[in-house]
Write a structure and sequence with these properties.
alpha+beta; Alpha-Beta Plaits; 2 domains; 4-stranded antiparallel beta sheet; 3-stranded antiparallel beta sheet; 5 helices
């Protein structure tokens, strides 16, 4: 008869790799193009799809954090003024930390749900529900 530790080890080996990985959120790096006095984030839709967030929500966050006006145009985001790639990456990381990762289990399996006038971040992994600040 097998010991408990042997059975546990065997069960862990049979688990799919994506379950055992801690970091499974793959976010594409922003591709920027500067033309004149405008900065284009060309792969903005790919970023929002990877984060599972509304493009308007992330765009509004970036407009406020970068202190630049802009607008969505198709699959890209246009910012008025020149912005460096490093600054955009820094602001994306802060968005992800605040609006994507669960504060309880630290997993990216969350969604934003609006209940009355409050927006909640609901974790699909642990079930935690936390209010988030309005942008």
């Amino acid at each position: 008869m097998k010991s408990y530790e042997d059975m546990l080890k065997e069960a862990k080996e049979k688990l799919p790799e994506d379950i055992t990985k801690k970091k499974r959120l793959k976010i594409p790096r922003p591709k920027l193009m500067i033309q004149g006095n405008q900065t284009f984030i060309i792969n903005f839709e790919d970023i929002t799809n990877a984060l599972r967030r509304e493009p308007k929500h992330l765009a509004k966050f970036l407009f406020r954090e970068l202190a630049k006006p802009g607008h969505l145009e198709g699959k890209r985001l246009i910012l008025q003024g020149k912005v460096t790639k490093r600054l955009v990456e820094k602001k994306l990381k802060s968005y992800i930390r605040e609006f994507v990762y669960c504060k309880e289990c630290n997993r990216p399996d969350t969604k934003l749900v609006k209940e009355s006038r409050i927006i909640l971040m609901v974790c699909e992994a642990c079930g935690a529900r936390q209010p988030i600040r309005d942008i």
